[in-house]
Amino acid sequence: MHEALLYQKLKNKSVRCLTCQKKCVVENNGWGFCQTRINKDGRLYSSIYGIVSSINLDPIEKKPVYRFRPGSMCLSLGTYGCNFRCQFCQNSEISYVDCSLLNLKNEKYLSPAQVVKMAIKLKADGIAFTYNEPAIWLEYSLDCCKEIRNLKLETRNFDMYTCWVTNGYATTQAIDVIAPYLDIYRVDLKSPSDNFYQKLIGIPRAKGVFDTTKYVHDKYPKIHIECVTNIIPGWNDDEKDLKNIAAWIVKNLGSQTPWHVTRFFPHARMTDTPPTPIKTIMKAKEIGQKQGLAFVYGGNL
Question: According to its UniProt record, which cofactors does this protein need (predicted)?
C-alpha cells in the first residue's frame, strides 16, 4: 500500500479521489471505480504501487509515437486496473482486473530504481507507462520519472525520456504533478460524441478528455503530444465526427500535432463488431490532411 497523492478527506472517514475526473467518493474500507485505490481509515491508498503486470522493450512507434526520437526503444510498463471500461479494450486482460480480488503479494514488484536500472541494462532510450491507464499509477510513474530526472542531473550524457500513453481523463491536479517530469503525452481522442463515451466507455462526456489535452498543450508546451483515434465501424467512423476531431486538433494543439487513425479489431466485449475497413482509414487520413494536419498516420494496417 502506498498513500495516494491526490485526495480529499470527507466526513465519516470517507474520501474523494482527485486523480481522475471520476473523482470517486470512497467510503471507509471501500474501493474506487478503478479497483486500485482503497480507503483505509480515512486515508486513500494505491494498492498497485510497483505492481507490474506487463513489461516489454518496444519501439517508440508502437505506442504509437512517430515524431519524438523515431527509431528509439522504450521500456514499456503496465499494471492492473483502469478508470475506463472500454467495451473494445485491446488489453482487457489487465485493465478489467479487480485488484481487490488479487493476491498482490504474488505479483511482480519493481521499485522505481529497479525499473530505471533495467532500462539502462537493456539500453532503452526511454520509459513508457502504457498497456493500461497510467493515471491510476500516478504515484509510481511519478517516482520512476523522478528517478530518471535525478540521473539526468547527475550525468550530463544521460538522456532517457518518459512517456504516458493515456486515455486523457486525469484531473488537471494529476497533470500538474506528473507534467514537470514528462516528455511525451500520447492521448486517445476516441470520439467527439458524448454518446460514444457513455455507451462504450462509461463516462458522461467527451469534453473532459479534450479539455485536459488542451490543458497539457497550453500549460506545458515542452511536452510532445500525439493523438490516436481508434475507428470503430458504426460508432466513430462518421466523416463529420472525424472532421471535428481533426479540426479540433488543428485549432487547439496545432497543425504539426500527429494524429493516428487506427483500425479496430474485435476484442473484449465487442467481438461481434467487424474490423475497420482499410478504406475507412484511408478516408480518415484524407480528412485529417484536408483539415490542415501535417502528420496523419494510418495504424493497425
Answer: [4Fe-4S] cluster
In a domain, 133, yes or no: yes
Mean pLDDT of the chain: 97
Domain residue limits at 92: 48-299
Instruction: Look up residue 103 and give its three cell numbers.
Output: 493476491
Backbone angles phi, psi at 61, to 5 degrees: -65, -20
- Span 268-298, pLDDT tens digits: 999 999 999 999 999 999 999 999 999 999 9
The answer to whether the annotation marks 82 as part of a ligand binding site is yes
* The pLDDT value given to residue 105: 81
For residue 6, is it within any domain? Answer: no
23, part of any domain? no
Assess if residue 54 is contained within a domain: yes
Count of domains observed in the chain: 1
Instruction: Map grid coordinates 538522456 to a residue.
Output: 159
CATH code of 175's domain: 3.20.20.70
Q: Is the pTM of this model over 0.90?
A: yes
